[in-house]
Amino acid sequence: MSVREAIEQARREGRAALIGYLPVGFPDVATSVAAMKAMVAGGVDVVEVGLPYSDPLIDGPLIQRATEAALAAGTTPQDGIAAVRALTGTPALIMTYWTLVDRYGVEQFAAGLAASGGAGLITPDLIPDEAAEWHTAATRHGLDRVHLVAPTSTRERIALAARSSRGFLYAASLMGVTGERAQVSAGAKDLVTRAREATDLPVCVGLGVGDGAQAAEVAGFADGVIVGSAFVRALMNTPDVPSGLAAVEAMARELASGVRHRWS
């Protein structure tokens, strides 16, 4: 099943899709993969596999701590591709900063990701104007390419990002770094409305969702709810691996319940 098919299946069930992010390699590669599987067991429809990077642009403090630990332990892009392979049966995207792919080799990375069964890439720092090489490789290997729009994006930039994306359009609900917020950004719903004027792609909202109530709120106007920091927190704030995996699955169940009881 592709990412878009998973989102459309959720829509047929009368709910938004739940997309869960975790960085590979935290606290180690095997545990991070087990945590991704725990997210799926708890109700996540699509997995974002984060590649740790030394200079993240939009990652908040919690994710930065996790990715720094993963890098210190020697986590590599190959570990991300291996994690995708381990998620057979669940659509999995890699979320990465473009420098990592460029250094790895765009064609080589695309070929490896496709061979592992991966769905594609989310590239938060790659603007469509500079993405021709990636678009060509993604098309050749049948991979999704997910670009971001923000509350400050103009109508023209939203249209360009939509035309350049495949799978879904990522609506960053606020400016700044990732992380849970006390409330959902007031501009998120307006951004989704503007994005839908430009595309028939699913529009999924990320940045700031931390619990089931917020997931329900976003599910009331978006096709998908993207959650990262809440899962990292669940894995990080436990005394041992079994407790961490249980906490991740419990968080997924809470969020999955939220997207099924969306606010009007």
Automatic annotation (TrEMBL):
Q: Which CDD domains match?
A: Tryptophan_synthase_alpha (cd04724)
Which SUPFAM superfamilies is this protein grouped with? Ribulose-phoshate binding barrel (SSF51366)
UniProt pathway annotation: Amino-acid biosynthesis; L-tryptophan biosynthesis; L-tryptophan from chorismate: step 5/5
What enzyme category does the UniProt record give? Answer: lyase
What does the UniProt keyword field contain? Answer: Amino-acid biosynthesis, Aromatic amino acid biosynthesis, Lyase, Tryptophan biosynthesis
The EC designation for this entry is 4.2.1.20
Keyword Lyase in record: yes
Q: What is this protein called?
A: Tryptophan synthase alpha chain
Source organism per UniProt: Nonomuraea purpurea
